[in-house]
Each structure stands twice: as C-alpha cells, then as structure tokens.
Amino acid sequence: MSEYFGKEVPKLGFGLMRLPKKGEEIDIEQVKKMVDLYMDAGFTYFDTAFVYTGSEEATKKALVDRYPRESYTLATKINAFLMATDEKACKEQFFTSLERTGAGYFDYYLLHAFMENNYKKYDEYHIWDFVKEQKQKGLIKYFGFSYHAGPELLDEILTKHSEVDFIQLQINYADWENPAVTSRANYEVARRHGKSIVVMEPVKGGNLANPPKEIQKLMHDYDPTMSYASWAIRFVASLDGILTVLSGMSSVEQMEDNLSYMKNFKPLNDKEQEIIKQAQKIINGFSTIPCTACHYCVDGCPNNIPIPDVFEAMNKQLGEGKRIQAISDYKKAVEGKGKASDCIECKQCEEACPQHLKITEYLVTCKKELEE
Ligand code: SF4
Ligand code: SF4
Predict the structure, then answer these.
(1) Does the 2-284 domain belong in CATH 3.20.20.100?
(2) Whose atoms come closest to the Cα of 301: which ligand?
(3) Where in the chain do CATH 3.20.20.100 domains reside?
(4) What is the pLDDT of residues 36-58, one digit of tens each?
C-alpha cells in the first residue's frame, strides 16, 4: 500500500486500455468478472482515457453502474492533440468523459501523453487553468499529467507547475536506461520534486510477459511458478514513491496472475534484483522494435497501415528468429489494410508515437524482410 493524501492506495491499478474483445467489441461480461476479482482482492484504482476507444463506456457498465462510487477511484485523461481540433473540442472531452462514465467526478485527472512536440498545446488551449477550475468545483480530486519525454523537460514542467498532485511515467526494467524512454532519469526527477508516481507500461505493452528466451530461463530457473509479467510488475512496485502500478489487463487469466503476487505484495529481494540486472543487460543487447502497441499512430495513417501489428510480426523474426511465422503473421495483419510498402513517409505516425520510434525506417525493414 502507498500512503497518499491520508488515503491508502493499493499498488496495483487496473489499466482499461487493452480490454478483452469479442470480435470488434469490448467483451463486457469478461470485464465485469475482472472488475469483481480486482475489487474482491481489495484494489480500487481504475485508469481509463478519453481516447481509449470504448473504454470509458465499458467502465460505466462494468464498474460505475455496479459499485458504490466511494468504493473505487477512477482516473481518466484529457488529450489536446488526439481527437481535439481546437480548445473548445479539447475541453469538451472532460464533459464527455463525465457523461460516458457516469462517475459524477474523477478522483484522478491527467493531461495526457506529454511529448516534446505536443505539451505546449495544453498551454495554448488553457487546459491547466481549466483543470484547476474543475478541481475547485470538486469534479476532480487530484490532477497530474502522463509523460513521454526526457528528464530536462520534465524538470522544467514540474518547476513551472509545482501544483500538480502526481505524475504518470513509463517505467519498466527494460526501459530503465533506454535513451528513448529514460525511465530511471524521469523517476529521479519526479522524486526530487516530491511527486507521487503512477507507473504506466510496467510490462512494456505486454512485451515483458514474454521476454527473450535467455531472460525466461533466468527467471524460470529461480522460480518456475512466477510469471514473467510478475517480475516486471514487482520491479516497479518495489521502487519508493509509487502511488500505483497500472497493469493493462486483457483477460481474467491476466487479472488472476496479477492478483496472485500483488494481493500480498513483497518487494523484490536482493537475488531477484540481481536477476533483473542480468535481464536488463540482455535486453540492451537486443534489437526488437520497442513498440508498446498503444495504437496512437494508427488513426492518422492515410494508408491504413496496422503499424503495431506489423511490428509485432516483425519482432517474431527479430526476437525469436521465427521468419516463417513472422511472414505468416504479417500477411494476416495486413489483409484488407495497408502494407509496409504502402507507407508514403508522411510521418504522421512518428509525431504521435510516445516511444519516439522511427516508424518509417522500421517499415522499410519490415517491407524488405516480410514482403520481398
Ligand atoms: S509515415 Fe507511413 S505509416 Fe506513418 S502515417 Fe504516413 S503513411 Fe502511415
Ligand atoms: S509505433 Fe509507437 S504509436 Fe504506434 S503502436 Fe507502437 S508505440 Fe504506439
């Protein structure tokens, strides 16, 4: 448990970004089961966002309509660069989120996904003042922002906006020293400013649930009963100052696995920390595409290229040497959609990518490896 403004916040947060699906629709019945398991285990932190398609509506059906409002806390986010054409449309997101969730107020409200190329939009649209007004009205309890850039800018923003209650950072053992993500350096800046931290992507978009074989062996030899995802989540939950660790769970099985080690959470011991250090060394020598499958790049692509699915297929070859499977997965991914070779290098996707990936360059490699 973390102490936060006099309240105890359990360390596992339910991220509602990658909910289970039945066909194209969110599988509400399965989400209800997941919510029940999570609440029964004594956890209370739910995290959605205006831009997660169908997620706020699913939150209403699976949580808000079924549990007393004081029994859980809900976080959602306003986005000034995705689905917001001007200031009015951006502010409207707040009221739409209230309506979609039916929650009455938000316990946590975030300015979403700050990057070098977009954070000024929040100033331009006067969103800081807007959010503070909503806080004064009691429609927001605490506010913060989620962040995907480097430590210098983070220091600058936290100095200018010391009023933020908390901050959300991408932290996982694979990105700890990754120069494109700078998990450690950002964590240290936030701590220096005395901010509590919500962790996102602790399993790196699911990648650390299935890490490279060498890492799997290290972890399995130490304890065959512990899932690979559990190592990733316990690593971040063991850090000081963590308000909650968001896990974007997509099935009842993932929920059960998460609860099995977070219900009576034990920080990593010295031997386990040593194994994580070895895993970090192995990962630093790997060359898979570090896509977290957030899908932020997909909507703006004029040629409808399923970028994260293409990268997932490519990673079968890069990470596991499975070329035949990679080609077969690629064919399925692009069926009826744009192919890697359809990229016209407009770079809209790169502007939207919180991992700062050189998507167009990766697509050239995907084209060569998977199409030719
Ligand atoms: S650069 Fe290529 S992949 Fe990216 S949005 Fe443009 S066409 Fe789509
Ligand atoms: S390429 Fe970037 S924006 Fe697109 S899904 Fe991957 S991480 Fe997200």
Answers:
(1) yes
(2) 1
(3) 2-284
(4) 999 999 999 999 999 999 999 99
